[in-house]
């Protein structure tokens, strides 16, 4: 363990913030789904990898830019989400532990299918602009900003803004927020909770599909990577307070920074442990997270 | 017919299991038999926490890995015979589990499930990075067993068979004890259980420790059996998933369910691996099976069959309602309902 210079620290903090923006997009769907369904969707990581693969193949086979391949992956995952919630997950009633096991089983299935279709080689999209770096001059230090990361943050911010506007101003969005606050009261007010749940799952997966496209440009993945990523996303939404969108946003930025600082302070090999420790500690000592509700009994 | 079966199947099954390695003499069958015994023992153990108490841990591979590493390190550094040291070293792991349980069992439901995953990942990363002790990612090797190769797998088989019998006995004893009733009461309604005087925190910690014990033991024996362990395989989440799937297939919270599940799943898993020659297809298949069990057979095989038999005997009785949760979960031969019994505590 060694303390790096200020220059390096500022550099990694900014990278961490950029990364955190993408994390926020990836984790938003997870927190929405938990808020409405009270089920932790462990398959979220596998769906992330699935959409990253869609972007990868769109790029490799047709040369479609990953920023545009969301046009393909978002509708696909939206439909998968609705079907999965409507015909599979909604059949499990009662024990929330069983719902979690079911989504876990889904994650295993996806991992198996993806692993058999596309060998275990680590994939990543390398576009023409992948290695381009924008050098930002600040009085006496230069911050190097990779284009992909900046573009990722902008795209993530746009997608998140769309989700926020949707939740704020549409009827379905209001129904979703009402269901998050109080499910039975929402039902009494005439909200079709089953429909809201299916739509939420669809939107949740659509947002992870958008995240997956950005993900495929920044990180290397194979079918087994979902285990690591679901743990990261879980620690983000648990830290933020499950079901709380602003909390998720805040926690994603915190985690992005914590991880990239840990990578230079410790080793990049050990830095994921920051995520798991934060997850563990939050669950046990502050189960409501930063801005959310208690989930100990979730 | 059913009565004869009920009375005699246990000695009969034991006889078959004792003769099995001499009937099917190819080494493959000895390996298969050992795996069945190993997983039946571990699933029985998982069931004490996941079935009786209702806390479904996805991170039981933590204890498997800890057991494997403790036994391997003791064999390498101190020269301890793994088959003798495993039951004692597993006690240490059980103690660790009780302490971890003290922290983790402040959560429940899905929060508990993700806490157990986090626990597993923390231990795996630690094992990967503590290179002085665990030798990191390449892993640790152990000396081979001293007996001649043609017997190589048979002692392991009998050893694990003995431990399976012990594990079943422990599970049976817990189930009929006041402690077990307390656990079932926690599963049915933790708040009420606490109100009628069940020491829920203590009970859960003990159950967690006991359910870690046989898993750690299994891990220790497995590390000797394979003679080489690495963090990725020792702390593999799939080992824990297998235990869950076996238990749920056979019957969650029943005495024989986990054993039945292991006897069905281990051979079929082998069959799948053989016919596809692919590890990834195997993942897809167990994922689909797990979904199917949760959706279509949520009670598991044994309670479902028991339900049929009861339906045939007294078609109405089964539908009269007033079944306690414990009875629905296949504890039908336990007369007192847990809530009533726990009140005397």
The CATH top-level class label of chain A: Mainly Alpha
Task: Tell me roughly what share of residues is in helical segments of chain B.
Answer: over 70%
CATH architecture assignment name of chain A: Orthogonal Bundle
Instruction: Classify the oligomer.
Output: heterodimer
As laid out across the biggest beta sheet of chain A, the strand order is 1-2
How many β-strand stretches of chain A? 2
Largest interface: chains, residues each: A-B, 50 and 45 residues
Tally of strands of chain B:
2
SSE layout and pairing:
The complex is a heterodimer of chains A (298) and B (345).
Chain A: H1 6-37, H2 44-62, H3 66-87, H4 96-117, E1 133-138, E2 141-146, H5 147-169, H6 171-181, H7 183-188, H8 193-218, H9 226-240, H10 245-265, H11 272-285
Antiparallel strand pairs in A: 1-2
Chain B: H1 2-23, H2 27-53, H3 61-78, H4 82-104, H5 109-129, H6 131-134, E1 140-141, H7 154-176, H8 178-188, H9 190-195, H10 200-226, E2 228-229, H11 231-234, H12 237-250, H13 257-276, H14 279-296, H15 301-313, H16 325-328, H17 338-342
Antiparallel strand pairs in B: 1-2
What does this protein look like?
The complex is a heterodimer of chains A (298) and B (345). Chain A is mainly alpha-helical. Chain A has helices spanning 6-37, 44-62, 66-87, 96-117, 147-169, 171-181, 183-188, 193-218, 226-240, 245-265, 272-285, and strands at residues 133-138, 141-146. Chain A has a single domain (6-285), classed as ABC transporter involved in vitamin B12 uptake, BtuC (Orthogonal Bundle), CATH 1.10.3470. Chain A contains 11 helices and 2 strands; from the N terminus they run H-H-H-H-E-E-H-H-H-H-H-H-H. In chain A, helix 2 packs antiparallel against helix 3 (66-87), helix 2 (44-62) crosses helix 8 (193-218) and helix 6 crosses helix 8 (193-218). Chain B has one domain (28-342). In chain B, 75% of the residues lie in helices and 1% in strands. Chain B has 17 helices and 2 strands. Chain B has helices at 2-23, 27-53, 61-78, 82-104, 109-129, 131-134, 154-176, 178-188, 190-195, 200-226, 231-234, 237-250, 257-276, 279-296, 301-313, 325-328, 338-342; strands at residues 140-141, 228-229. Chain B has a two-stranded antiparallel ribbon with strand order 1-2. Chain B is globular. The chains are: A mainly alpha (298), B mainly alpha (345). The interface between A and B is large, with 50 and 45 residues.
